[in-house]
Amino acid sequence: MRHIFLLCLMLFASVAVKAHSIGRSSSYWHVSDGGVKVDWNLSGAEAEALVADKLADGMSLNAALSQYASKVMNITGERQCSVEVEQVRVKANGDYVVSLVAHNCTASSASLSHLFESAPSHVHLAHMENGENLLSVGKPVLEFGEGTISASPVEYGGLGVFHILEGFDHLAFLLALLIAVRTVKALFWCVTGFTLGHSLTLILGSLGVLDPIPEVVEPLIAFTIAFTVIERALHVAEKPGKVFVGALMFVGALAVADYLLLQTLPLLVWAGIGLLSYCVWGAAMEAEEKQPRYMLPIVTLGFGLLHGFGFYGVLSEIGLPQTDTIWALLGFNVGVEIGQLIFLSAALTVVWMLDKLVKEARPVLELATSVGLVMVGMFWFAERVYLG
Amino acid sequence: MKNKEVLLFLGAVAGIALAAVGSVNSENDVFPQDTLAVVNGVGISENQLKAKIDQIEKAREAALSENEKSALLTSLVNEQLLLERAAELGLAESDATVKATIIDAFKEFIISEKEGAEVGEGELRAFYDENIGRYTPSPKYLISAYLAKADFGGDVTVDTLKANAEAIEMPDRPLPAGLLRRYLGKDASAQITQVQVGEVSGPYKRLGDYLYMIVDEIEQQSPRSFDDVKALVQADYTRIEGEKLFAEYVEKLRAEADIQLNEALR
Fold it and tell me: Does A285 touch chain B (CB under 8 A)?
C-alpha cells in the first residue's frame, strides 16, 4: 500500500514538474540620438509562459505579448522614454520577435526589472552595437554607452550553475547515477565520463560543428534517467528477466507508437535506443552485484554527449557574445560542473545524514526515488516524444 | 571479458553512437560553400541575401538589424517555396498575368545586357542622322473650319462653305495637330497631316452637323540639335539595339526548337 501511495505521489510530481524552468530570451538594440529600436526574441513556449495570465483571460498571444513587452522594456534618458510596440511576428521556427521603438528619446539605459520580477529565473542576453550584456534578476539594467562591453565568463558560469540547478532532468539523471553507482570510485568515473561527454558536445554545438535537433535530444535526455535506474533495478531484481522483457517491450511499444503516429524520433535513434537498452540491460541482468561495472562509465559518457546537446540548446537560445566567445563558453561549462558538484554534494550529504539518523529509511527512500525517477523519466520521455 | 560481454559492450557503444548521430542535423555536410539555406534542394546563397540586404539598406539609407537580416533570409526561403508551388501548379502556363510578367521580365533581362554598354559618339550621331524624324517636332497647322447643317459632299469649294456654313472660331496661330483636336474633334484632327495647303477636307460628322476644314498654312519645324537630345538619342539607341538583340535571341530559340504549325487549321 505504501509503495502504491509513493508511486502515485511520484506520478503527480512528474506531471507537475517541468524539466526546465529557466526562461531565456535575447534582444538586439540599436541606440541612436533619435531614439532606440529593439528586437526582442523569445521562444514560443517562453512567450506563452510570460503572458500565461493574459492568455487565461482570453487575450490573443500577439496582443498579450505586445502589452507585456511595452510594460517590461523601460527605457530612460533624461526622462522616461515612451516605448511603442511596432510589431509582433512569428519566425519560421516558431520563435517570436517583438519589435519596440522609443522615438525622440536620447536613451542612457534600459531596465528589464519588471520582466525579472514576473519571471525571476529568466535570463536575457542583450546584443548591442558595442557588445553584449547578460541580464538577470541580479542585474536587470542595461547601460548604453561608449566602449566595448562583453558578457563575462563569470556571468556565463553563473548561468551554467543556474541551469543545472534548475534543469530538473539533468538533476534527475545525476540522482539516477547516484542510485545506480554504489562506490565513490565508480561514481567518480561515471561523473567524469558524463562531464567529458557533455563538454564535448556543448563545445562542438556552440562552435557550429554539430547542429543538434532539440526535438530528438530532449526525449533522449529524459530516457537516460529511466534507463540508468532500470540498469540498477536489473542488478537487484529478484526476477530480472521479467523486468528486462517488460522494459524492452515498453520501449518497443513507444517506438512503434511513435513510428505509426508522429515519427518524432528518427528510426536511427530508435534503433540506437533499442540496441543500447538490450546490450546494457542485458549485461546488467547477467552481472553479479559485486562485479565491477565497466559499462556504466562508457554509457554515461555517451549520455553526457546527449545532455551536452541539451546544454547547448539553452546556450543557443540565449546566445554567446561575439567577443570572448570561447571564454563565455568555458565559463558556462565550468558553471555546469560547479552546479553538478553542488547537487551531488548536497545529495550525498542527505544520504549520509539519513544513514546516520534513520538507517532503516534508506531502502525505502531508495526504492521510492528509483520508482519515481523511472516514472518521471518515462513520463518526460513520452511527453517530449508525443506532445512535443 | 567474455565474448558475450564484449559483444554487449560493443552493442552498447554502437547504440549510443546511433542515438547520438540521429540527434544531429546532417545538413551541414551537404551545404555547398556560401549557401545559407537549401530549400528542397535549391540553394540560397550568401550573395543572394547580401544583394537583398544592400538593396533595402540603400533604399532606407540605414543598416538592417540582425533580426531583420534573419527575417530577410526567412522571406527568401518563403519566396522559393512559393515559386516552387507556383511552378507545380503550372501558373506560368495557366495564368495570363504571370505569363506576361515572365515574358516581360525576360525581355527586360535580355535588353538590359545592352544598357550598361558604352556607345561611341559617332554611333550615336549616325543613329541621330538616320532617325532625324524622331527628333524633329511635328509641323504646326493654321486651320479654318466650318460647320454645315447639310452634307455638301467631298468636292465642296471654300466659297460654298463661306456662303452656306457657319465658321468656327479657331486660333489665329499655327498649332500642332494634337492641340487642334479639341477644336476639330478626333476624326478631323487625325486627317490633318494628309491635307495639302488650301485643300478642303470633310465632311466629318459632329453632333448632327457636318464639319469641313481647310489647311491655310503648314509651319514645318527644325530638328532639335544633337546636343540637346543626346540623352534621348542614347536611350532610343539602347532600346532599339536591345530589341534587336531580343529578336535575335528569339530567332535563336526558334531555330533550336521543334515547332510544327498545323496548316490545316491556319
Answer: no
Query: Please, which residues 329-368 of chain A have a Cβ atom closer than 8 Å to chain B?
Result: none
Q: Tell me, yes or no, whether B28 lies in a domain.
A: no
Kindly state whether A292 is in contact with chain B, defined as any CB-CB distance less than 8 angstroms.
no
Predicted confidence (pLDDT) per residue in A60-113, tens digit:
888 889 899 988 988 888 778 888 888 888 776 677 889 898 888 888 888 999
What distances in angstroms separate CA A104 from CA A39, A87, B32, one per listed residue?
A: 18, 19, 45
Cβ distance A231 to A223 under 8 Å? no
For the domain that residue B60 is a member of, what is the CATH number?
1.10.8
Let me know whether B183 and B197 are in one domain: yes
Same domain flag for B51 and B175: no
Residue B27 pLDDT: 57
Q: What is the pLDDT of residue A17?
A: 43
Rounded CA separation B99/B219 (Å): 47
* Contact yes or no for B9 and A298 at CB 8 A: yes
d(CA A135, CA A126): 7
Q: Pick from A127, A268, A277: which is nearest to B21 by CB?
A: A268
How big is the A-B interface in CB pairs under 8 Å? Answer: 115
- On whether residue B15 sits in a domain, the answer given is no
Residue ranges of A 183-212 with Cβ closer than 8 A to chain B: 210-212
Query: Do residue B157 and residue B206 come from a single domain?
Result: yes
Answer whether the bond into residue A212 is a cis peptide, omega within 30°.
Answer: no
Phi-psi region of A167 (alpha: psi -120 to 50; beta: other; left: phi over 0): beta
Chain A residues close to B12, C-beta within 8 Å:
275-276, 279-280, 283, 295, 298-299, 302
Q: Looking at the structure, do residues B99 and B212 belong to the same domain, yes or no?
A: no
Q: Are B155 and B123 members of one domain?
A: no
Query: Which amino acid would we find at residue A326?
Result: I
- Mind listing the pLDDT tens digit for each residue in B68-115? 888 888 888 888 888 877 777 777 777 788 888 888 887 777 777 666
- All 3 cell numbers of residue B1? 571479458
Looking at the structure, tell me whether residues B144 and B169 fall in a common domain.
Answer: yes
Q: What pLDDT score was predicted for residue A154?
A: 85
**Which of the residues in chain B have pLDDT under 50?**
none
Asked, for residue B98, whether it belongs to a domain, the answer is yes
Query: Which of A101, A268, A316 best probes binding to B when mutated, by most B CB atoms within 10 angstroms?
Result: A268
Q: Would you list the domain boundaries of chain A?
A: 24-149, 159-387
Q: A278 pLDDT band (50/70/90 cuts)?
A: very high
Minimal CA separation from A279 to chain B, in Å: 5
Work out how many domains chain B is built from and give that number: 3
Check whether residue B47 and residue B69 sit in a common domain. Answer: yes
- A302 with B21: Cβ contact below 8 A: no
Q: What ipTM was assigned to the predicted interfaces of this complex?
A: 0.75
- Residue ranges making up the domain that contains B113: 93-135+222-258
d(CA A313, CA A102): 32
- Quick one: B141 and B209 in the same domain? yes
Q: What residue type is assigned to position A275 of the chain? A: L
